[in-house]
Amino acid sequence: MDQPPRIGRYSLVRRVGAGGFATVWLARDEQLDAEVAVKILSDNWIEDDDVRRRFLAEGRFLRKVDSLYVVGVHDIGEADDGRPFMVLTYADGGTLADRIKAGPLEIAEVVRIITQVGRGLKHLHARGVLHRDVKPANVLFHTDPAGDRAMLSDLGLGKSLAEVSRITMPGGTPAYVAPEQVRGERLDHRADLYSLGAVAYAAFTGQPPYGVASLSAVMQIETPPPSMATLREEISDAIDVVVRRALEPDRDKRWLDLDSFLNALRDAHTTGEIPPGLVPAAEMPTPATPSADVDQATALASANQSTVAAPPKRSARGRVLAALLAVLLAAAGGYGGYQLVLTRPVQVEYNKLAVEVPRDWSQKAERADGPALLVSTSTADWDKSTDVDGVYLGVTSGSSLPSTTTPPPGCSAVQGETQTIDDRQAVLFRYPCPSGHTVFERFIQLRDGKLLQVQVRDDNPEHRQSVLDSASYAP
After folding, report:
1. Tens-of-pLDDT digits for all 475 residues of the chain?
2. Cβ-based neighbour number of residue 313 at 10 Å
3. Does 273 lie in the same domain as 176?
4. Domain stop point among 224, 245, 278
5. Same domain for 403 and 307?
6. Do 177 and 269 lie in a common domain?
7. Which of 151, 143, 211 is nearest to 176 (CA)?
8. Whole-angstrom Cα distance, residue 103 to residue 83?
9. In a domain, 266, yes or no
10. 278: Cβ–Cβ under 8 A, 6 or more apart, which residues?
11. Rounded to the nearest 5°, which phi and psi values hold at 354?
12. In a domain, 71, yes or no
């Protein structure tokens, strides 16, 4: 049937893409005077209830995630002909597949893109969803004043973690799908990690890691792909081994989680050195089985201890964390326990300062004068870039709240918003930053002419607000 010129309040401008089940149009939201993307179920599937269900399920999955790095769903409806549609963030910068075809990408640009896609996956996983079809065509770019931003799209194969804890039907794109997904095994976050590694390989080299054209061929993969340096000379050995570990066919030999992969990729790029402790997981020491008197509460309490490790000691720290996670898995009951451990906030305390943070913020720095506390994914990079998740708490002298502040490096100065926090006067500054982060900084008036300063950097709005609100000082 012919495409109507409009659907509801959205006037269709031109078709920008089409797949097996849906067509995507550039459209204009006439009420908001804004460009959007409208994804419409293809007319030949209108009578297929299962396809309609999957189409709407994708919209529900996307609505669960509020992330800069996942395409947002703004509206869902039904056209006059009965076809369901959803209104999405318009990606005006094309796809990663387009950029790979156009020619070699700069190494730093690939690291930035993979980091942003990885953050999108982290946010999906935190909401209980696996993507299952991460590939260059599903990485879109949206431009804003700070530059372009990579976003994950197309959750047509997305599954909730509850569903993938059971045997699932094979699916995915052969060049980028994890072998265990093709075999229909029970899946976890490592399936998306593998696909992200495959996307990184393609972005660095211009071609996918394996020349496979069918799902059956994926099942024959037994070793990591050839070195990327054989395809592109300027790729360092450090980056090569980091990416290829993500592509281990045996998921137990891959990176432990997305943060491990992304942090190692960043370190390999910035230092040019192979990250310490880069060994297959199978070579890590096997932790002892926890004794009967070690219960789950005790294990979780142990996991709440934040640590600071100098780079040369990172390999030992990584082995300790891997061993601890295995203990927690045994105590908490498999993958469900893993989800509990990674998503449950950690209470960090120091010198009367306290804050609850995501568990992957595993480094902290303390300063007695003030006092002050920094908890982050990388304390060493906190002063270099706002593209690092974390929180800083400090007590400073001040008889009144500041009206202006010095924003973090590269961020824009803004006016503060007056607030009341537990009957105390406060001011909040929201700094837009080139990295895509929105940095929150709050000052709370304390007794005795002091201020509590709290600065939070996180591209996940929910995490950012919860960390900010949890910060406290009890003199």
Report:
1. 456 688 888 999 988 877 667 888 899 988 888 889 898 888 777 777 777 887 887 777 777 677 889 988 888 888 888 888 989 888 888 899 999 999 899 999 999 999 999 999 998 888 878 888 899 989 999 887 777 899 998 764 434 333 433 333 345 678 899 998 888 788 889 999 999 999 999 999 999 998 777 777 888 888 889 999 999 999 999 999 999 999 999 999 999 999 999 999 999 999 988 876 654 333 433 333 333 332 323 322 332 332 222 223 333 333 333 333 333 333 333 333 333 333 457 788 888 899 988 877 878 888 887 789 999 888 887 887 788 889 999 998 888 899 888 888 888 888 888 888 877 899 999 888 876 667 899 999 998 889 999 999 987 777 788 899 889 988 7
2. 13
3. yes
4. 278
5. no
6. yes
7. 211
8. 38
9. yes
10. 241, 242, 245, 264, 315
11. -150, 145
12. yes
Token couple for 153: 């799209």
The answer to whether position 111 is within a domain reads yes
Give a yes or no: residue 285 inside a domain. no
Structure tokens at 256: 């432990």
Look at the chain and report how many structural domains it folds into: 4
Residue 196: CATH number of its domain: 1.10.510.10
- The separation between the first and the last C-alpha atoms of the chain, rounded to the nearest angstrom, is 70
Domain coverage including residue 404: 346-473
Diameter of the chain by CA atoms?
Answer: 73
What is the distance between the alpha carbons of residues 233 and 19, in angstroms, rounded to a whole number? Answer: 35
Q: Is the peptide bond before 179 cis (omega within 30 degrees of 0)?
A: no
Integer Cα distance of 126 and 10 in angstroms: 32
Active site residues per annotation: 133
